[in-house]
Specification:
CATH topology of the largest domain: Aminoglycoside 3'-phosphotransferase, Chain: A, domain 2
Strand order of the largest sheet: 1-2-3-5-4
Mean pLDDT: 93
Largest sheet: 5 strands, antiparallel
Number of helices: 10
Low-confidence stretches: none
CATH superfamily of the largest domain: Aminoglycoside phosphotransferase (APH), C-terminal lobe
Distance between the termini: 14 Å
Amino acid sequence: MSVLSVPHGRTARRLEWHFLPPHVRDLVAQRCGSPVVGARSQTSGFTPGFASVLTCEDGSRHFVKAASVVAQRAFAESYREEARALGALPAAVPAPSLRWSHDDDWVVLGIEHVEHVTPPRPWRTEDLDRAVAMLGVVAEALTPAPPGLATATAAEEMAGWPSCWDRVLLQDLGRGLAVPGLAEHGAEAAGLARLALSVTAGDTLVHADVRDDNVLLAADGRVLLCDWTWPVRGAAWFDTVALLIGAREDGLDVDAVLARAPLTRDVPADHVDAVLALHAGYFLVMQAQRVPATSPFLRTSQRRRAEATWGWLAQRRGWS
C-alpha cells in the first residue's frame, strides 16, 4: 500500500460564510428565520462549494450548501441535482431532509442539521457494520426506485468506465503504484469491467457515491447517508461493495462483511469482481490527472483507492 496519506475529514477547501455575496447571506438568513451569528465550514469531501453549519441568533442550527451558477457551474449543477433528489426521497430513507432550496444566480440548499461524526479512519468493524446495515434500509426503501428519480441507469452513467482500462494498459498508469500483477492481469480486469455494465442492472435507487465522508453517525443513534448528488437505478448491492473499498484500504476483512451482509451474501463472486474491476480502472485513470487547485488531496485519495481496489480484486481472483 502507498505511504501517501489523506487527512480524512480535512480534504476540502471551501468558500467561507463571509465570502458569500451579501445578497446570498441575506437570503440564507431570511430562509433560516434568524440572523446568522456563526458558521462552521465542513472540511470533508473534495469539492469547493460552500457547505457550513450555521448558527442563528435564535439558537437554531442549519446545514447550508451554496455554489455560484457562474463561477462554480459544475458544483451548482450538482447541488441542483441534490436538491431534486432530497426533495423526492421517501421518508423511510435515512438521510438528512431538505428544508428549502433556492435556484437563481446561486444554488442554495437548506438541509436538516444533524449532530454527528463521520466514521473515524481507519474504519472500525462496528462502524462498518452499522453503515452496511443502513445501506440495507436504504435499498429496501428505494426498491423500486421512486417515480421521477434516477432516470439514468448505472450502466448508462458508467458506460465510459470500462474504456478506462484501455488508457491504463496503453499508458502504464499503474507505474509507481502498489498494484502488483497489473500488467499480467490487466486485460482480464478489463473484461470484468465490461461485465459490470450488465450485472449492476436493477430497479433500486442507488446512491452511487458511498464513502465514509457521506456516512453520518448521528448523536441520536441514527446512521444517515448524505450527498445525494447523482443517484442512478441499479443493483441494490452496488453501494455496499463501493463502501467496502475504503474499509479494504484500511485493512479490514471486507470479504467477511460481504459474506454476512444480506444485500451481498448471495451475489455471485464474478459480479462483485466486475464492480471492483470497474472501479479500479476508473481510479487508476483519475489518480493520474492534474491535481485541481480546489481539491489538493483528490488525486492522492484516488491513488489509494486504486491500490485498495486492485489489491482486493487481485486477492479474490488469486492474482497475488
